[in-house]
Design a protein that fits this description.
The chain is an alpha/beta fold. It folds into three domains: 149 residues, 3-Layer(aba) Sandwich (Alpha-D-Glucose-1,6-Bisphosphate, Chain A, domain 3), CATH 3.40.120.10; 197 residues, 3-Layer(aba) Sandwich (Alpha-D-Glucose-1,6-Bisphosphate, Chain A, domain 3); 80 residues, TATA-Binding Protein, CATH 3.30.310.50. It is built from 14 helices and 19 strands.
Length: 455
């Protein structure tokens, strides 16, 4: 069944446009309250947010919907998405909600929902919530004597800081390391620097002055240029970039080079493998990960399992087969011994631990495999139909895959978080995959133009 509201990572859109409008968000809050209410005891929901201006509006609308259906609400303010997952479990809540559009610009916002165990919702639960949103919910309103209460948890930030610090080996210290941290003017702005300083590092900050509008603006894991420049200018040992809700990670080495999610997966997987802590010696990765990562991990005795794109699919595979580590090329890294969702800060501590143990420079630590060339393109979705559902387009992409053979891969998909079609072509020859990606992009654009003219 096609979902009307939920994408690959919750409900997302431009603030004050469908579905991120006060009336719809109110109904989302009511639907969540109805779905997660418990008859045996007073039910509660944790709500966190990042630093977007629209977070105030969404927080209030969600709270009203939850209270109206009889649930208590714990407000924890600006905290990373993984903090909401952790606090939902810690506070014995029935559900958790994070208000964030992750790496998107400030005008976007979204709603991510967690089960009581800190896991993101599965497809079935999302569909059940959607069915509730589309109903008249007045029959579910609580009587005046059963309305919920609202409480602000003032020490939520401190609880998460201690949780993250406890994942770092006690026998190690960050003393002697100069680290540049870029918090994307987002949810970790007053958390990540504190964690690193309390573990002993010398810390310089970027993106820690949020104003409601500057989240992810020329900073963070999707715009690392300022971090690269700062690392070189300050002769830092390493740079760490988080995104707006701090659930993804990107590293800059001491030479100013970017270390993406695939190499971070390799570094952490090898560390866990050498320590005997990598369950079943297997890592869950997505279809986006470079084939060179798979080859390297196999070479050092680590198996890989590929999943659909999205950190929740990585986690589903981990839980199904009993793995404890997985991640995405984008920097969503899940260490299930500690967290139930991607946690950029927690993952960065694992990388720093590996760096200390190796006694190497960060550029040496990351020099472990050479990725195959990949070309990534985004095509704005403008037609009323999805070109990827058309047989002619599917056949065209299939022919291009046949041309590449077993020396490369083509992945074309509709984004679950933005109105885009994403094209990824990987192969041995850069010129060849550039040509193929351009041909696919032209095919998609041509279809959309023809389709638009027909209306």
């Amino acid at each position: 069944m096609t979902k009307k509201f939920f994408g690959t990572d919750g409900i997302r859109g431009v603030a004050n446009t469908f579905p991120i409008t006060p009336d719809i968000v109110l109904k989302i809050g009511m639907a969540v309250g109805i779905k997660f209410a418990c008859d045996q005891q007073k039910s509660r929901v944790v709500i966190g947010k990042d630093t977007r201006l629209s977070g105030y509006m969404i927080e209030q609308a969600l709270t009203s919907g939850l209270v109206a259906t009889g649930l208590d609400v714990f407000l924890v303010g600006p905290v990373p998405t993984p903090a909401v997952a952790m606090l939902t479990k810690s506070l014995r809540a029935n559900a958790g909600i994070m208000i964030s559009a992750s790496h998107n610009p400030y005008q976007d916002n979204g709603i991510k929902i967690f089960h009581h165990n800190g896991n993101k919702l599965n497809d079935q639960t999302e569909q059940e919530i959607e069915q509730l949103i589309l109903q008249d919910l007045n029959n579910y309103l609580a009587p005046p004597c059963s309305l919920g209460k609202v409480k602000r948890i003032d020490d939520a930030k401190g609880r998460y800081i201690e949780f993250v610090k406890n994942s770092f080996p006690r026998q190690q210290s960050l003393s002697g390391l100069k680290i540049i941290i870029d918090c994307a003017n987002g949810a970790s702005y007053n958390i990540a620097p504190t964690v690193l300083r309390e573990l002993g590092a010398t810390v310089l900050e970027i993106g820690t002055q949020p104003d409601g509008f500057n989240i992810n603006h020329n900073c963070g894991s999707t715009k690392p240029q300022a971090l690269q420049e700062k690392v070189l200018a300050e002769q830092a040992d390493i740079g760490i970039a988080l995104d707006g809700d701090a659930d993804r990670l990107l590293i800059v080495d001491d030479c100013g080079n970017i270390i993406d999610g695939d190499k971070l997966i390799a570094i952490i997987a090898e560390k866990l493998h050498n320590e005997g802590k990598l369950k079943q010696d297997t890592v869950a990765i997505t279809q986006m990960s470079n084939l060179a990562l798979e080859d390297y991990l196999n070479y050092i005795g680590i198996n890989t399992v590929r999943t659909n794109i999205g950190d929740r699919y990585v986690l589903e595979a981990m839980q199904k087969y009993g793995y404890n580590f997985g991640g995405e090329q984008s920097g969503h890294l899940i260490l299930s011994d500690y967290s139930t969702t991607g946690d950029g800060l927690l993952a960065s501590l694992q990388v720093l631990s590996a760096l200390i143990s190796s006694k190497q420079k960060s550029h040496q630590l990351a020099n472990i495999f050479t990725p195959n060339p990949q070309v990534l393109k985004n095509i704005s979705l403008t037609s009323k139909q999805n070109p990827l559902l058309q047989e002619d387009v599917q056949n065209f992409i299939h022919l291009k895959q046949q041309k590449l053979g077993n020396k490369g891969r083509i992945l074309v998909r509709k984004s679950g978080t933005e109105n885009l079609i994403r094209i990824m072509v990987e192969g041995k020859k850069l010129t060849e995959i550039q040509e193929i990606s351009e041909e696919i992009a032209q095919k998609l654009s041509s279809f959309q133009y023809q389709n638009k003219k027909s209306f």
